[in-house]
Amino acid sequence: MLRKRGGRFRRKRRLPARFDNACGAFEYRHIKQPCCFGYDEVPYGAGAILVARPEKALLDHWHLSAGEWTSDRLQEMRYQNMQAVDASRLQEYVARFQRPRLRRAADRWARLAAECDDGALIE
User: Fold this and answer.
1) Smaller CB count within 10 Å for the chain: N or C?
2) Which conformational region is residue 80 in: left (phi greater than 0), alpha (psi within -120 to 50 degrees), or beta?
3) Bridging pattern class, strands 2-5 and 47-52
């Protein structure tokens, strides 16, 4: 949760949590402040919510899931709408994370997307 203090947003420390409701199961986990980017503000009711861009959602998924993202593991995920991922934005976001494991995953993702029948990365 972000709280505004003195013109800056600061993260309030909370434990990871899981919630189940009529919409599904939701798991909340924390990432470091430098990795808090890649969201669009979307109107919702009387306010707004932050929704991750496709590239950010992929990186968060890869980052928060333990282990190496091999080509086989990526194929097993059966990702859909791969054409919605912007290749240059994905590479920009990977550079900001500064994690070699994510760089390897993104490189493998690009090869998988290029081979995929239902679309490829946007260039």
Assistant:
1) C
2) beta
3) unpaired
Strand-pair category, 17-21 with 8-11: unpaired
For every residue of 42-76, DSSP letters joined together read: EEETTEEEEEE-HHHHHHHHHHHS-S---HHHHHH
Please, what is the angle between helix 54-64 and helix 100-115, to 10°? 130
CB atoms closer than 10 angstroms to residue 117: 6
Q: What is the pLDDT of residues 48-105, one digit of tens each?
A: 999 999 999 999 999 999 999 999 999 999 988 888 999 999 999 999 999 999 999 9
pTM for the predicted model, two decimal places: 0.74
